[in-house]
Amino acid sequence: MRLIQYRFGDYVLDPAVRELRRNGERLPLPLKSLECLVYLVANRQRAVGRDELISAVWGRAEVSDTVITQTMRRARKALDDAGDRQTMIRTVPGFGYRWVAEVEELEPGTVAVPMRTTEPDDDGAGVVPSAPAPVPVPVPVSVLGREEPEAPAGLAQAIHDRNPRNFAVRWRMVAAVLVVVLCVSSSVLWWNHRSAPSSADVAVTHPSRVIVLPVRVAPGEADVSWVRLGAMEYAADRLRGAALQVTPTEQTLHLDAALPDAQSPDAAALRQLLDRSEARWLLLPTAQHNGTQWRVQLRAVDSSADISVEALGDTPLQAMAVATDTWLRRIARVPADRAVPTELQERLRRIDAELDAGQLESAREQIQGTPRAIRDSPPLQVREGQLEYRAGRMGEAARLFDSALAQKPAATPGVRAKGLMGLGAVALRSGDPATAQARYTDALALLAEASSVDTRQLGNAYNGRGVAQVQLGNLDAAVADLGQARVAMRRSGDDVSAAMVGANLGRMEGMRSHWPQALQEFDSAIAVFERFQVNDYLAATLAAKAQAQLETVQPAQAKATLARTDGLLGALEDGQLVAVIQLARGNVALANGELGRVDAAVKALARTGSKDPSVSRLRMAVAVARGDSGGAGRLAGSASVPVQGAVSEIAAIAVQAAAGQADGARWLGPGASARHAAAAPDPATFFAKAMLQHRFGPADQALRDAQNALAVANRDGSPNDRVRANLLRAAVLLDADQPEQAVAVLGELDAYASTDYRVAWWASALYKRRGDAASARRAQHQAAALAGERPLGTPPLL
To answer: Residue 155 half-sphere exposure, CB side, CA atoms within 13 Å?
Structure first.
């Protein structure tokens, strides 16, 4: 991949740094508009169909005509090509678009001279960042009910690239977590894997969305703790039956926790919460037992009204059913379910409430206390299977799911789909993604046959199959499934789950080297997690974004992003997530020359008990950065070569740290990682091999290997891969006494000299060797400004 720029008229389009400039001035342009321009210009020899453009830019199919029209309108406005002019982008009626203006390709380092001077347009919405953008970190551990995180399982390291003949291992030095959602009534079960908006674009009120808060139960009521969440979920289901969107439990509990007076909030606090939820109505139920009956009061608040309805019933659910249906009729909605809640429905609500609260033993007691007549019913067996899954008893969970599916007469499609999804989650947990894929596919087929589609279950099924596709290496299919999952989750009003899927999509876009899309997914997910104060997901996605910013050579921006986790870290209970954030802190501090902070991150990682092999990488890297060649060599010689994980990335550092060729070569031997036997190792492996030849091999072989490293980085790598491969080429040429050729190579990296210490340091060295004193001084000033605690007399870590 060459770092080509395109010039047309007064404009220069630079895909590498995601900028459109006019007469040298950067124009504000929404990211998707800029990516449409890049794709049309790159394919200017032909017309591009609308579906092809959507697939290339958005990576999935759920893009409306309005979205693509607005995206193209902004692109045309930036080019002063709006209306009937169409001198650059021509609409092909009924098909798509075609680029029609003359284009000149500018090779790296070429200075683009404006052809004429005109005033640039100014579109103030959605500005593309002026500096390069972000490698990923993890998303947090989540669970059924929200409380007790489970230990993550390993995600397959080899992921097929878009080119099927290549493997692209994009997630290095990080634990990227993918989330499987297993529907438990309205509760969810999330399961981690090692490897995350769009719903937060604009704060709007959804015309059919309702948020139902947990039921306030009068003090002194014995043995009714389940009513708080169980009756809330029952009300939510009745509202969904009347074609209303209901904010899911996870989001509701986060919002409810922020109320200043939890038991009896005032109208102002409720309306403020209503605004944050983006719902049209807020329902606050209260329940009281008067000795013989239950009284439920349902307080309904919207932007202009605050009313209440009351109802009596023999059980909390009976009273809730009457109150909910009464309110539905007041807003001209027809209740779909007029039946009195059954004993099974009430028992399921009791179980769900305990699971939502993380009380596994209490949930088990509720199951064991179920009357014999309904004890072995398919819905209860599925719920018990979900409980055993959560408890880590995979064999028992699978038995219960199978038993529910085998019963005659068959259960409803929704219950069978839940059973199949449970078996899919068990298969993923057991390292059998092929079986998981089949089970989730069967669940989707059942849901397609159902008389009414439960969009929550649909989203869960697509999400689970997407994770199975990732483990199978079918990355494009995984992106398609997760895109469908997000659409379904948004339709059900589950913004948080949609954002979780968006964060996972961001990671996979990074795997495919689609960095602009990855960043957009991360930013959108972060906005949702901030709005709902989902701090564990927020911290993990901020860390993912910071790592991505390092891959796109934005160390200062990565530091600013990760600083946003400072106020979150102390409240995180998940040790794995804390370790991931500390690892990201070490990587970001290293890139910014804050070597003391790297030491602090390594110590913090030791306290977490992390066994991540990337901790060895940090230790070796900081020794090299300090110029401690002896210490670096000892670490490279004594550290164990990991058999899994980010081996090639660690090897690239270990070779730079090694005191001798043997210590460096052992990191690249055929037994170092099974991944080295893949058809095409990743860019870090090629870089490590080239670095080994540069340090210990003949000059001609070093130059050939450096060229190979650059070719692989251009094909499959990130901007950071390309920067360090070019710097290695320049170093090899300088050692071979070819400073002019080295300076030519460095010219390709001139855009990074003001932001990246490595580029500035080598520019100073090369210009000094060439005898260009003025350029050397300028580069040395830039290097000094970026050095941090790194000694200027020591060649930088690549």
So the answer is: 32
Tokens of residue 315, six digits: 């059980």
Q: How far apart are CA 644 and CA 646, in angstroms?
A: 7
* Contact assessment for residue 59 and residue 517, using Cβ atoms and an 8 Å cutoff: yes
Q: Which of 578, 648, 660 is nearest to 613 (CA)?
A: 648
66 vs 61, 70, 122, 216, 699, CA distance in Å? 14, 6, 22, 43, 57
Write the Ramachandran bin of 423: left for phi over 0, alpha for psi from -120 to 50, otherwise beta.
alpha
Specify whether the CB–CB gap between 614 and 635 falls below 8 A: no
Residue 397: count of CB within 10 angstroms of its CB: 23
- DSSP annotation of 736: T
Confidence of residue 193 (pLDDT cuts 50, 70, 90): very low
More confident residue, 107 or 665: 665
Nearest to 3 by CA among 16, 18, 13, 12: 16
In a 10 Å sphere around its CB, with 0-12 CB exposed, 13-18 middle and 19+ buried, how is residue 75 labelled? Answer: buried
Range 4-19 average pLDDT: 82
**How far is residue 233 from each of residues 246, 285, 324, measured CA to CA in Å?**
10, 11, 12
Of all residues in the chain, what percent are helix, strand and coil, respectively (each to 5)? 55, 10, 35
Let me know how long the chain is.
Answer: 798
**209 strand-pairing partners:** 245
Q: Which amino acid is at 782?
A: Q
Quote the CA–CA distance of 670 and 682 in Å, as a whole number.
15
User: 179 φ, ψ to 5°?
Assistant: -120, 125
Q: How far is it, in rounded angstroms, from Cα 513 to Cα 510?
A: 5
- Cα 62–Cα 66–Cα 72 angle in degrees, nearest 5: 100
Query: For residues 693 and 656, what is the distance between their CA atoms, to the nearest angstrom?
Result: 11
State the Rg of the chain over Cα.
Answer: 29
Q: Which of 672, 679, 671, 674 is nearest to 654 (CA)?
A: 672
Residue 454's alpha-carbon distances to 238, 314, 383, in angstroms, are 13, 29, 17
β-pair type (281-289, 209-212)? parallel
- Rounded CA separation 385/351 (Å): 12
Q: Are 120 and 161 in contact (CB under 8 A)?
A: no
pLDDT exceeds 70 at position 613:
yes
What is the pLDDT at residue 178?
A: 47
C-alpha to C-alpha distance for 741 and 659, rounded to whole angstroms? 29
- Tens of pLDDT along 284-334? 999 888 777 788 888 999 888 888 888 888 788 888 888 888 888 888 888
Q: Using an 8 Å Cβ cutoff, are 717 and 725 in contact?
A: yes
| Residue 555 structure tokens | 């160390």
Q: At what angle do helices 614-626 and 595-608 cross, to 10 degrees?
A: 160
Between 203 and 74, whose confidence is greater? 74
Number of H helices, E strands in the chain: 33, 16
Q: Tokens representing 644? A: 């899994």
Cα separations (Å) of 331 from 134, 232, 267, 302, 334? 47, 19, 20, 11, 9
Residue 48, amino acid:
V
- Prior bond to 114 cis, omega within 30? no
At 156, the pLDDT band (50, 70, 90 cuts) reads very low
Using pLDDT thresholds of 50, 70 and 90, give the confidence band for residue 758.
Answer: very high
